[in-house]
Automatic annotation (TrEMBL):
<dbReference type="InterPro" id="IPR043202">
    <property type="entry name" value="Band-7_stomatin-like"/>
</dbReference>
<keyword id="KW-0472">Membrane</keyword>
<dbReference type="Pfam" id="PF01145">
    <property type="entry name" value="Band_7"/>
</dbReference>
<dbReference type="InterPro" id="IPR001107">
    <property type="entry name" value="Band_7"/>
</dbReference>
<dbReference type="InterPro" id="IPR001972">
    <property type="entry name" value="Stomatin_HflK_fam"/>
</dbReference>
<keyword id="KW-0812">Transmembrane</keyword>
<comment type="similarity">
    <text>Belongs to the band 7/mec-2 family.</text>
</comment>
<dbReference type="GO" id="GO:0009898">
    <property type="term" value="C:cytoplasmic side of plasma membrane"/>
</dbReference>
<keyword id="KW-1133">Transmembrane helix</keyword>
<feature type="domain" description="Band 7">
    <location>
        <begin position="48"/>
        <end position="207"/>
    </location>
</feature>
<dbReference type="InterPro" id="IPR036013">
    <property type="entry name" value="Band_7/SPFH_dom_sf"/>
</dbReference>
<feature type="transmembrane region" description="Helical">
    <location>
        <begin position="24"/>
        <end position="50"/>
    </location>
</feature>
<dbReference type="InterPro" id="IPR018080">
    <property type="entry name" value="Band_7/stomatin-like_CS"/>
</dbReference>
<protein>
    <submittedName>
        <fullName>PHB domain-containing protein</fullName>
    </submittedName>
</protein>
Length: 292
């Protein structure tokens, strides 16, 4: 049935010239008659026929069903004839639309809620009026589905780390879909990404564990460097007895400057060993004398 109806529809361009010529004559006659009425009813007709179009708007006029001058009119003063002209005022300014928060499933099967904003404007008023009944509403609905499709191809980590890439991809796809309607999508912004509470807790625990591991690695590296420095200092002091004595004197000088009631004086190990050997010899000598 649909094929039969489409075959019965005949456009004016497909009609023979013998039929088109009378139709053109009728069209011109109607326009002339309306203009004559407009002139004879001046200046009263000016109040009904003159339309003022602002700089940020355009007027699309259909005269007897066809777009007048094949383009949008304005800015300035435009005369619209009664009965035969149908006019539509189109705003060219950029409009922002907040995409409602919706739950989406990512590529790795994680449910996230995303808030976004879309900025678009009308670039072709004739296409906006003639190709879509409500291009702005259609653009808003297409923005929701496009954003859902884009997020469905990304994992959770990609969504959290590459918001600009997601916005750019959504803007390109949305602009491609709205171009036949005369709509230009200038920008798409991902405002907020909300995760489930259970997933937030898991991510927080994972981040805390990662920070603790990094802190342990830093502490171990510091201890390794400190032990290496202490080993080098000990080797250098052991290689030079004079350096050891100088270190001993510096320690005594530092202790004397502090106001402490108890002063600990370090005694070199060599001195203790020599004293212990002398005491052992004195214990042995009396035994030798008694045997004699």
């Amino acid at each position: 049935m649909a094929v039969e109806k489409s075959q019965n529809v005949v456009s004016l361009e497909s009609l023979p010239y013998s039929i088109l010529q009378p139709l053109a004559i009728v069209r011109c006659t109607i326009i002339v008659v309306v203009w004559v009425i407009f002139v004879f009813t001046l200046p009263l007709s000016l109040f009904f026929c003159i339309k003022i179009v602002h700089e940020y708007k355009r007027l699309v006029v259909f005269r007897l069903g066809r777009v007048l001058q094949h383009k949008a009119l304005g800015p300035g003063v435009v005369i619209v004839l009664p009965c035969i002209d149908e006019h539509h005022l189109v705003d060219l300014r950029t409009t922002s639309y907040d995409v409602p928060s919706q739950e989406m499933l990512t590529k790795d099967s994680v449910t996230v809620s995303v808030d976004a904003a879309v900025y678009f404007r009308t670039c072709d008023p004739v296409a906006t009026i003639s190709r879509n009944r409500d291009a702005r509403v259609s653009t808003r609905q297409l923005a929701q589905t496009t954003l859902r499709n884009v997020l469905g191809t990304r994992t959770l980590s990609e969504i959290m780390s590459d918001r600009e890439g997601i916005a750019f991809q959504a803007q390109a796809l949305l602009d491609e879909g709205t171009h036949p309607w005369g709509i230009k999508v200038e920008r798409v912004e991902v405002k907020d990404i909300r995760l489930p509470r259970e997933l937030c807790r898991v991510l927080a625990a994972e981040a805390e564990a990662s920070r603790e591991a990094d802190a342990k690695v830093v502490s171990a590296n510091g201890e390794l460097q400190a032990s290496s420095a202490l080993k080098e200092a000990a080797d250098s002091i052991a290689a030079s007895p004079a350096a050891l004595q100088l270190r001993y004197l510096q320690t005594l000088s530092r202790i004397s400057t502090t106001q402490n009631h108890t002063i600990v004086v370090p005694i070199p190990i060599e001195l203790i060993r020599s004293v212990s050997k002398a005491l052992q010899l004195r214990k042995i000598d009396p035994l030798k004398n008694t045997n004699c």
